[in-house]
Write a structure and sequence with these properties.
Blueprint lengths: L10 H15 L11 H8 L3 H14 L2 E4 L3 E4 L15 H28 L2 H16 L4 H18 L3 H18 L4 H5 L5 H16 L3 H25 L4
Antiparallel strand pairs: 1-2
Keywords: DNA-binding, Transcription, Transcription regulation
Pfam families: FCD, GntR
GO molecular function: DNA binding; DNA-binding transcription factor activity
């Protein structure tokens, strides 16, 4: 008899799940401002970075909005209230393709600057996220969150506040566009999950050696793969 491997939960994942549970239960109603990072850190008895990571995850999943300098608020429309998609329509495909076109320009710019400006600490952080992505293979939700953190970390490493802001906005649009089927945005081709991880690793390797052109090319190739997935799903009329 084979046992399923038990993976220890990160502190931020535990915080995320508890906060999400309180939002779902109505303890934090829609539009409510959550306690501050300082207050949550004290309540959970964890560091502020753990709280920030949990809140970023909730934001990426569509549960909260984070307003810079204004706090974190429960969204008025929650993910579990989104209507189920009847299928992958042409209009969906066109909208997502347009987002991908914007994403290609923003992310290749981010990664090129990251290759020129990233600190050793930032490169190490990207490698840690790669480790999380590898550990999460087969876990759709954990993989998605790690993927989001990866691309946001690259934007942060660009040290360009405008690009960072555009990436945050773009991430929200991508998440909203996929709605309840957003996990397939990254993993429509389940057999290629390890290939996607290799693509992310190639991006980090290029950043680490300050190869701006190589990093941009690796990112462009990675995004093109998602483009192909979208086109295939649209042509097949697949239910996401």
């Amino acid at each position: 008899m084979e046992f399923q491997q038990v993976k220890p939960q990160k502190g931020s994942d535990i915080v995320l799940e508890q906060l999400r549970g309180r939002i779902e239960s109505g303890f934090y109603p829609k539009g409510t401002k959550l306690p501050t990072v300082v207050d949550l850190a004290a309540a959970f008895q964890v560091g502020r970075s753990t709280i920030r990571e949990a809140l970023s995850g909730l934001k990426a999943m569509g549960w909260v909005d984070i307003r810079h300098g204004g706090g974190t608020y429960v969204r008025m429309t929650l993910p579990n209230e989104q209507p189920a998609d009847s299928g992958f329509s042409f209009e969906q495909s066109r909208s997502l393709r347009e987002l991908q076109e914007v994403r290609r320009f923003i992310e290749t710019g981010c990664v090129s600057l990251a290759a020129a400006r990233a600190s050793e600490t930032e490169v190490a952080a990207l490698r840690r996220i790669l480790g999380e992505m590898e550990a999460a293979l087969g876990d759709e939700e954990a993989s998605e969150l790690a993927d989001i953190r990866f691309h946001q970390a690259i934007a942060q490493a660009s040290h360009n506040s405008l690009l960072i802001g555009m990436m945050e906005s773009l991430t929200e649009r991508l998440q909203s566009g996929m709605k309840s089927s957003r996990r397939l945005w990254f993993f429509a081709e389940r057999a290629s999950a390890e290939g996607l991880l290799a693509e992310h690793r190639a991006i980090v390797d290029a950043i680490a050696v300050r190869d701006e052109a190589g990093a941009a090319m690796a990112m462009a190739q990675h995004i093109q793969k998602v483009d192909r997935v979208i086109r295939t799903l649209a042509e097949e009329g697949a239910d996401l």
